[in-house]
Write a structure and sequence with these properties.
The chain is of the alpha/beta class and about 325 residues long. About 40% of the residues lie in helices and about 20% in strands. It has helices at about 15-30, 40-45, 80-90, 105-115, 140-160, 175-185, 200-210, 230-240, 260-280, 300-305, 315-325; strands spanning about 5-10, 35, 50, 95-100, 120-125, 165-170, 190, 215-220, 245-250, 285-295, 295-300. The strands form two sheets. The chain has a seven-stranded mixed sheet, with helices on both faces. Helix 1 packs parallel to helix 9 and helix 5 (about 140-160) crosses helix 6.
Length: about 325
């Protein structure tokens, strides 16, 4: 195998750049031509394919986002679009792909590798940490620390004004960010998509159970919570808790940005190195998502990684409540 291409697709996540850097430098160490595809699957269809060198990935390990840019491609969902993409790869004699992304990226890679003679290894680049087959996804640790830092600052205002803050974090289908950040930031309550929201219990807590001497409060809500997210939680609380000054903060896309943490830099580098080495050592066509489970590199079939979403430990919701005092 002499030609490998790497690309990023779907939502960006901190750690994608260190991962690209590791892929490129590992390939070059093995005298393999490494190509970068700009703009994800759309860029593949358009032929935005460039051979990369050591210089192209210099000084990017600390940068958030992705130097290869990213997108979501409607054209690649069609058979005609995938045929165009394969024709562009064939011009460079590329027979192996490293795809950094999440669910949508892996669905596309799985179908693409079934239709054509291509090896494809996916690397889990998503802040949600919801993919089966890896303990941690690229960007999750950075996003989690971004939330904690933001909540720490919000608490300063909450305590100064004796306010109750509802903080909405990312997590449309998974509550990993919400749950872990709630424990780490000392939130009083947390709401996640995996557990039904008991609004009555929440109201009862603030009316009857909460200590009278507490001067502030933080409630973490995942955007996919079944109550409707942070805005709906705030409205319900305002209707029933007229004595509280209640504010809403939606952290939004700041959770995706920023310089990757040390953990994400190391983690993504290990995955990038492992992906190239696995492709070079393969005796036949290989496809699947590479992850790290119990400190060991593993390959999980794309369909399994996507459909068998990692389960959240909902018992930790009680941990948040217990530590709230």
């Amino acid at each position: 195998m002499k030609n490998i291409a790497v690309f990023t697709s779907g939502g960006d996540s901190p750690g994608m750049n260190p991962c690209i850097r590791a892929v490129v430098r590992t390939a070059l160490q093995h005298n393999v031509n490494i190509f970068g595809i700009t703009g994800g699957y759309d860029g593949m269809i358009k032929g935005q394919i460039t051979q990369l060198s050591h210089k192209d990935v210099a000084h990017i390990i600390h940068r958030g986002g992705t130097i290869l840019k990213t997108s979501r491609s409607d054209a690649f969902r069609t058979k005609q679009g995938r045929a165009k993409a394969y024709a562009q790869l064939s011009k460079h004699n590329i027979k192996a792909l490293i795809a950094i992304g999440g669910d949508g990226t892996f669905k596309g890679a799985d179908l693409f590798s079934e239709e054509y003679d291509l090896s494809c290894i996916g690397l889990p680049g998503t802040i949600d940490n919801d993919l089966f087959g890896t303990d941690y996804t690229i960007g999750y640790d950075t996003a989690l620390n971004t939330v904690i830092q933001a909540v720490d600052k919000i608490r300063d205002t909450a305590e100064s004004h004796k306010r109750l803050f509802v903080v909405e974090v990312m997590g449309k289908d998974a509550g990993f960010i919400a749950l872990r950040s709630a424990i780490a930031s000392g939130a009083e309550r947390v709401f996640v998509p995996e557990k039904k929201t008991d609004v009555d219990q929440l109201i009862d807590y603030y009316k009857h159970q909460r200590r009278a001497d507490k001067t502030s409060g933080i409630i973490i809500v995942a955007e996919g919570d079944d109550s409707g997210g942070g805005k709906q939680i705030k409205q319900v609380l305002q209707e029933h808790l007229t004595s509280y000054d209640i504010k809403l903060t939606v952290l939004g896309h700041i959770q995706r940005g920023g310089s990757p943490s040390a953990f994400d830099r190391v983690h993504s580098s290990e995955l990038g190195i492992g992906a190239v080495q696995r492709l070079l050592n393969a005796k036949q066509k290989i496809t699947g998502m590479m992850g790290i489970v119990n400190r060991s590199l593993t390959i999980t079939p794309f369909k399994q990684a996507i459909k068998h979403h990692k389960k959240i430990n909902t018992k930790l919701v009680k941990t948040v409540e217990l530590l709230a005092g």
